[in-house]
Write a structure and sequence with these properties.
- The complex is a heterodimer of chains A (about 110) and B (about 120).
- Chain A has no helices and 11 strands.
- Chain A is mostly beta strands.
- In chain A, the strands form 2 sheets. In chain A, strands 2, 4, 5, 6, 9, 10 and 11 form a 7-stranded mixed beta sheet that branches. Chain A has a 4-stranded antiparallel beta sheet with strand order 1-3-8-7, with no helix packed on it.
- Chain B has about 120 residues and is mainly beta.
- Chain B has strands at about 5, 10, 20-25, 35-40, 45-50, 60, 70-75, 80-85, 90-100, 110, 115-120.
- Classes of the chains: A mainly beta (about 110), B mainly beta (about 120).
């Protein structure tokens, strides 16, 4: 199975900050990477797929990049509604695997 | 608008069985693979099982293989997960999730249900 390792596991930030979350795969996943946002008590919500493609309706402050084994989610200017937990997921192969999550908290 | 509504969760004793359902609307069922993804309390997401749009191909996580069975009835736009020989570590919120392709072996998830809680405890 491909292991997905996210870092950091949590971070504290203020509104307007630029936030970066990284996701490392245990082997190359050829850009088959998605990012989800999950708020407490809610289902995950797709933000980006194929590394950098923005899902319809997702604000452009969310950006994805990367290749090979290393990928990044960047929030350019943190908004109040962005405080949540973020997960990466590889879909290069089955079993699909997720990172352990990064919780973005208010500083 | 895509809507997914899970049901069937509850409290069950270790070794027991439960069947989850996911009623889908807003898209043509047989065009898309579907998956079950679970989330233990306070923990991260775990993919459990997937089924192709036609229902002809299925995949399972090793942790549930031989105990869980995924199926679908496209005439009813409903996805199922039959869970047998349940263990305490199966305790989780179970989400159904819509894939973006017909094939079950790949793809990300563009729509999720609200989840149903399964608790395995004596």
């Amino acid at each position: 199975d491909i292991q997905m390792t996210q870092s950091p596991s949590s971070l504290s930030a203020s509104g307007g900050d630029r936030v970066t979350i990284t996701c490392r795969a245990s082997q190359g996943i050829d850009n088959f990477l998605a990012w989800y946002q999950q708020k407490p008590g809610k289902a995950p919500n797709l933000l980006l797929y194929e590394t950098s493609r923005l899902e319809s309706g997702v604000p452009s402050r969310f950006r994805g990049s990367g290749s090979g084994t290393d990928y990044t989610l960047t929030i350019s200017s943190l908004q109040p509604e962005d405080f949540a937990t973020y997960y990466c997921q590889q879909y290069y192969t089955t079993p699909r695997t997720f990172g352990q999550g990064t919780k973005v908290e208010i500083k | 608008e895509v809507q997914l509504l899970e049901s069937g969760g509850g409290l069950v004793q270790p070794g027991g069985s439960l069947r989850l359902s996911c009623a889908a609307s807003g898209f043509t069922s047989n065009n898309y693979a579907m998956s079950w993804v679970r989330q233990p309390p306070g923990k991260g997401l775990q993919w459990v099982s997937a089924i192709s749009g036609s229902g002809g191909s299925t995949y399972y996580a090793d942790s549930v293989k031989g105990r869980f069975t995924i199926s679908r009835d496209n005439s009813k736009n409903t996805l199922y997960l039959q869970m047998n020989s349940l263990r305490p570590d199966d305790t989780a919120i179970y989400y159904c999730a819509k894939g973006t392709v017909t094939a079950a072996g790949t793809g990300y998830f563009d729509s999720w249900g609200q989840g149903t809680l399964v608790t395995v405890s004596s």
